[in-house]
Amino acid sequence: MAHIDYFFSTVSPWTHLAGDRLEKIAARHGARVHYYPLDVVALFARTGGTAPAARHPSRQAYRAQELVRWAKRLGMPFNLKPAHIPTNPAPASYAIIAAQAAAAKGATGDL
Fold first, then answer.
1. Is 95 a member of any domain?
2. N or C end of the chain, less CB within 10 A?
3. Has residue 28 been placed in a domain?
4. HSE of 39 in the Cβ direction (CA atoms, 13 Å)?
5. Are the C-beta atoms of 17 and 69 separated by less than 8 Å?
C-alpha cells in the first residue's frame, strides 16, 4: 500500500487550514498517512530560517493576508490573533505519536 509521510507543525496555522484534505486525497488513492509532528520554530533556528515573529513587518503582513485569504477560500474559521500564542507544540505532538503507535499495535495501520 502506498503511504504519505506528512511532516507538520501542530501549532502552524497552515496545518489548521490543511484540514482533512490530505486524508481525503490519501483515501481516494488507497494510501496511508504517517504523521511526523515537528517543532517548526526549532527547525527554523537549526536550518537558518526566520521564525514568523522575527520576520520583517512586510513579510508578516503578507503572511497574515495570505492566511486570511486561504481561510476564506476554504470556508474555514480562522482567528488571526489567538489569545494564547505561542503555545507549546510538545503535548499535541506526543498525543499524535502515541495515537499512531496505538493504532499500529491494533493493526489498523494509521490514525
1. yes
2. N
3. yes
4. 11
5. no
Can you give the pTM of this predicted structure? 0.82
The cell for 109 is: 495501520
Q: Which residues span the domain enclosing 101?
A: 3-52+88-105
3-state secondary structure of 34: strand
Q: What are phi and psi of 46, to 5 degrees?
A: -75, -25
Output the nine-digit C-alpha cell for 93. Answer: 505532538
Reported as a single tens digit per residue, the pLDDT across 55-98 is 999 999 999 999 999 999 999 999 999 888 878 999 999 999 99
Residue 67 belongs to some domain of the structure:
no
Instruction: Quickly list H helices, 1-111.
Output: 13-18, 21-28, 40-47, 57-74, 90-105
With H, G, I as helix, E, B as strand and everything else as coil, classify residue 107: coil
